[in-house]
Design brief:
- This protein has 489 residues and is mainly beta.
- It has two domains: 10-368, 3 Solenoid (Pectate Lyase C-like), CATH 2.160.20.10; 399-488, Jelly Rolls (Sandwich), CATH 2.60.120.
- Helix content is 5%, strand content 32%.
- The chain has two helices and 42 strands.
- The strands form six sheets. It has a twelve-stranded parallel β-sheet with strand order 1-2-5-8-11-14-17-20-23-26-29-31, with helices on one face.
- Strand 1, helix 2 (37-46) and strand 2 form a beta-alpha-beta unit.
- It is globular.
- Residues 371-387 have a biased composition (Acidic residues).
- Residues 362-396 are annotated as: Disordered.
- Residues 1-28 form the signal peptide.
- It holds the Pfam family Beta_helix.
Length: 489
């Protein structure tokens, strides 16, 4: 039960506010604990600068109508604003038990609709509506460490002059769930489609998206940046194309990023086609595009795919690396006139560092852990203690050569060493329990043949390592399991 001396529901807060105003008392910011959807809707509609709305464990399926939520478009809505020194905060009580704000189905409404400024929205999940988070005329807001999934169309949309917002450390997957509407399943949409005219441009400017994991099953582009927008920054994200619809849908979606605005920055991202043949190229610049810096990105594409499909100039492309061995920069030779290798320093902004969504085991692009473990877990049966990691003994009795970027099943009865195509320093090495042989789960180490102090310990069904070096590793099982799956990229 809530402590009524120190926390108030949304309904109680409204009554207290009315009393304070009638008594000519000054209003002060407060913490507002909510326990169900109705209380949350009321708190959102009456929030004041500096308030902290804390979403306690409960059921949060919003009622989409103007009486309950305050908007006929939204299950949860607010048009209140904080200020630079006193933002309004909306968060779960615990980051280890993020609450899920939900709509009623994927065919209608927004889960959360914001028309206010200076909010901090964090440590929450959004699900089951036509759109996830919609910002309209909303500025200087921060959305951090959130998951958006099971959405009918786009997950996050900044539009109608929404500027200076930041979406960070998000995890977006399974969008475009409306039957026949897969072409509208973007992860992040900036601006408004205007029919490719010069009128009615939406100046949603200087929005930043960083540290997000996008995919799988985002059916349209990960990012769609529309005409009229300026200064969008897309940095340090991991994007998987698995599940994109390509040209099968209307509108078609066959790239990670569509750029139609100007003065965009796209940097430090990893984009992986995930063997999905519906991904045709990485970045598409369309009619209204004028100027972007694209640099320090890593691409894994089909070998014959291009990084860019350029219809409009100018892309300043520097130090973009392909991990698949392909060399194609543009889709057609005439497009070479639309890019150069000199960054436009006048549009640059300082980069940021992001930790990624905190339920991902191993950083951006990795597999999420179970976000809601059993509160009373059943103890595992006692097991014999595992031997500590040991240095490799002797030479490799057999070595399996691995194809860079491909997941490979390893049978230790046939070989005890794996060899990557090149030194893995600066790259990611992933290890999973075997899919083909599920009689046991591998627990043990990958130990460098060249340097026995370089050890990767595998103690769960998935690990990602970014600090290894060398190209050949002995695979040592601590539990007599002879099967493992690995990949480097």
């Amino acid at each position: 039960m809530p402590n009524l001396l120190f926390s108030k529901t949304g309904l109680e807060k409204s009554a207290v506010l009315a009393l304070m105003m009638s008594s000519s008392c000054a209003f002060s910011a407060e913490r507002i604990d909510v326990y169900d959807a109705a209380q949350l809707q009321q708190a959102l509609r009456t929030a004041q600068a500096g308030d902290e709305i804390v979403v306690n464990p409960g059921s949060y399926v919003g009622n989409k109508n103007s009486t309950a939520s305050g908007s006929s478009k939204a299950h949860f809505f607010s048009d209140r604003s904080g200020n630079e020194n006193a933002p309004i905060t909306l968060r779960s009580l615990s980051t280890n038990n993020k609450q899920v704000l939900m709509g009623e189905n994927v065919d209608s409404g927004y889960v959360f609709y914001l028309k206010g400024d200076h909010w901090v929205i964090k440590d929450l999940k959004f699900s089951t509506a036509q759109k996830g988070i919609m910002l309209e005329g909303a500025n200087n807001n921060a959305i951090d460490n959130v998951e958006i999934a099971n959405i009918g169309a786009e997950a996050v949309h900044f539009r109608y002059f929404s500027s200076d917002n930041e979406l960070s450390n998000c995890y977006i997957h399974d969008t475009g769930k409306r039957s026949g509407g897969e072409g509208y399943g973007e992860a992040v949409y900036v601006g408004t489609h205007d029919g490719h005219t010069s009128a009615k441009l939406d100046h949603s400017n200087d929005n930043r998206i960083g540290g997000c994991t996008i995919g799988p099953n985002v059916t349209a582009e990960a990012f769609d940046v529309k005409s009229g927008t300026r200064g969008t920054v897309i940095e340090s994200n991991y994007i998987s194309a698995k599940g994109i619809i390509g040209t099968a849908g209307n509108p078609a979606a066959d790239s990670f990023i569509d750029l139609k605005g100007t003065n965009n920055i796209v940097r430090h991202n990893k984009m992986d086609w995930a063997n999905d043949s519906d991904l045709d190229h990485a970045i598409f610049t369309y009619q209204e595009h004028r100027n972007s810096n694209v640099y320090n990105n890593e691409f894994t594409l089909a070998a014959d795919s291009a990084i860019f499909h350029m219809l409009e100039e100018t892309v300043h492309a520097v130090n973009n690396v392909r991990l698949d061995g392909g060399t194609k920069i543009v889709k057609a030779d005439y497009q070479n006139k639309k890019w150069d290798d000199q960054l436009d320093s006048s549009i640059e902004k300082p980069a940021k560092v992001y930790p990624c969504f905190d339920e991902l085991d191993g950083g951006c692009g990795s597999v999420p852990t179970d976000p809601e473990p059993d509160p009373e877990p059943t103890p595992d049966p006692p097991t014999e203690p595992e031997d500590p990691p040991t240095a490799p003994s002797g030479d490799c009795s057999g070595t399996l050569d691995l194809v860079w970027g491909e997941k490979t099943e390893v049978d230790l009865a046939l070989t005890n060493c794996i060899r990557f195509e090149r030194d893995v320093a600066g790259s990611t090495v992933q290890a999973w329990d075997s899919d083909e042989n599920n009689s046991c789960d591998f627990r043990g180490e990958l130990v460098s043949v060249d340097n026995s102090s370089v050890v990767a310990t595998i103690s769960s069904n998935y690990h990602a390592f970014n600090s290894l070096s060398g190209d050949t590793f002995i695979v040592q099982a601590n539990n007599n399991c002879g099967y493992i799956k690995v990949r480097s990229y």
